[in-house]
Amino acid sequence: MIRQQVSGKDYGGYEFRVLGHTSSDSITGLVYNEVFYEEENGEPLQDSVYKRNQQTEDLLNCKISLITQ
């Protein structure tokens, strides 16, 4: 359904910079970020966020990056 709604949209490589933050789990030491990851690593949340962003970038011809400041 979403693909149908955005079909034909092309952002020409525009970079969408998303303001976000990271938090870490004091027990496991893992760093969590709900917006952006640079690669997959086998962690389900990280892999899902990464794949979602890759699919969005491919579908809309754009780039998603994270700003943490």
Secondary-structure map with pairings?
Layout: H1 2-6, E1 14-19, E2 23-24, E3 31-32, H2 44-60, E4 62-67
**What percent of residues adopt helix (DSSP H or I)?**
25-40%
**Mean pLDDT across all amino acids:** 83
List unreliable stretches of 5+ residues.
none
Rounded to the nearest angstrom, the radius of gyration is: 14 Å
Cross-sheet strand order for the largest sheet: 1-4
Measured distance between first and last alpha carbons = 34 Å
Our estimate of the beta-strand percent is 15-25%
The arrangement of helices and strands along the chain is HEEEHE
Global morphology: elongated
Structural class: alpha+beta
Counted by DSSP, the helix tally is 2
Q: How many domains would you count in the coordinates? A: 1
Task: Find the count of extended strands (DSSP E, 2+ residues).
Answer: 4
The major beta sheet can be summarized as:
2 strands, parallel
Question: Describe it for me?
Answer:
The chain is an alpha+beta fold. It has one domain. 32% of the residues lie in helices and 23% in strands. The protein is built from 2 helices and 4 strands. Strands 1-4 form a two-stranded parallel sheet. It starts with a helix and ends with a strand. The model has no long low-confidence stretch (mean pLDDT 83).
